[in-house]
Give the backbone structure.
Amino acid sequence: MTDRPTELQKAVAALGQVAAHGGGTTSELSIDETLLLHSIGWEPVDLVFGVSWWSVPWGAWQWQTGEVLEASNAFAGALTEAAEQLRDECVGAGGSGVVGVEVELRVTSHHVDVTLTGTAIRRTGKPSPGFEFISDLSGRDFALLTRSGWWPLGLVAGASFVVAPRRGAKEWASQQRQNLELPNLTEALYQAREGAMARMERAARATGADGVINVKLREGPLGYNARVMQFIAVGTAVHLREEAHRPISPVMVVPLDDAVLQFAAESLRGQG
Amino acid sequence: MTSVPDGENTGGLPEAAGRRLGSGAWSSGLSVADFASCLSMGMEPLGFVQGYAAMHWSWYSSTYYRTQTMGGLGRVPGPAEQGQYSEGWQCPHGFVGGEHRMYGYNFEQTMVEDNWNTGWGLAFHRMVEEASALGAHGVVGVADAMTPLPGTGAVEFSIKGTAVTVPGAPRPDPPFSTFLSGQRLVKLIEAGFVPVSAVAACSSVQMISYCITRYQMAGTAAGNWSGAMSGGVAGVHSIVQVGKALRAARHLAREQMRSQLGHDELHGATLESFEKEVGEGDLTIQCLVRGTRVRRFKPFDPLPEAEPVVRLS
């Protein structure tokens, strides 16, 4: 077992010396992620970014019902451009992949904004085989995924924005005193979902993926227009690199610490 | 660490602080778990240390106002000073009228960056100075904040942490500092890294839009006016000037951070970006990066592959 105080004394003594070589690495990974990646032969290289805003023409949301293709296309264009920038930065820094990508999305009436921030990583002590993937998986999830024989291929996404048709005056008037489903809004949400999911799955197939994991959804009305239903799905496309999935067979552990960690009045009443 | 400009007086410790730190029980911002981790590593808390600086603050420089007249002709930024980011765009339509934005610019606002670096640097140095006065080896669990002071046009920078000593080790000058504490710090040291300093950098980019960017931001880039006559950006298209400004702000923050690292590495970086619309289609962008500068003090063999566990509770 490490003698921690002695180790710490050595560490502090090293502050009096100047680092002789290397350096310049920037990373947003936690120490746990860094150690996990190190254990499977990867190391962080640099913090990398991709930012893209795409315009949506005036009137796109107002003068139609059904899908607003301009907005869906703007989303696709912005995500593709931001991902290309991320890939270029990763390659420029000598990385082979990007993990822990934080995806920030914003949809306004006139533009769709995508920002990607992640950490470029490379194999330790091996030449890079070239660019391999962008993934929103954390370092921990990347280690688990590759351990079980799977491999990330890229960040994939789909978006759809649907303007629900207005109810007719007669319909509106007849429904004022009833609590009932509004099919125009339900159907708009379903249409948006099908459009977005189909686009994401198509993008995954185009990369040669078997599936998409860690899918995150944004669904529901757009903030500034309740009649526009948005559905955005983003995830990491993966494929099975080994012949078969390797079960990770986790060990079951039972913690022996007290379930009641802090004093709580309820525990005195015998309700705990 | 962020540097304080040469000749800047950090003010020294207030007398009351000196008296308080010289007597009485030690204080700490550590949680019980962090406290236990520090003790297990051989660190002992000495005192809760803080540094403050209140700075007058403006989001954008006077350059912005000078570009607001005569369709951007009021003041055309000159060539960028060496190393500064600056980029320009020219309208494809020619002179149309006084309100028409003939020129667009993205440029680095060094005034804002310098102000931020000075404020953060002063607060940081004051905190470290308190730690030094206590005879500390380092400061752990550093937390920083920037809070506007309403009605004053000023912001307060505050940085705090727990000064610690490492009995038996030579005292570094200045003491080390880190945003980490507790188990994360233990793991960092066991992995062969020692924290050198908490570091932070701020970049600021002003974007003065030209006509095409304005149309795109307002959703009015349609038809020949901004289509065929301007290289075809009508409809759904990338807003190039904005994308470049936002990326430039991130790159500048990253490079400012890198310039503080020397041969060391940056661990656990966090990045925050703020955009503020300061006029029709104009943006001012700030980007903050924080993290801990770490140095490898021993070679470290990779850990064995981690054992997956399922917790039954």
User: Anything to note?
Assistant: Chain B touches chain A through 77 residues (CB under 8 Å). DSSP finds eight helices and ten strands in chain B. Chain B has two domains: 25-57+112-191, 62-77+86-108+202-292. The beta strands of chain B are 44-56, 86-90, 103-108, 138-149, 154-165, 176-177, 193-208, 265-279, 282-296, 309-311.
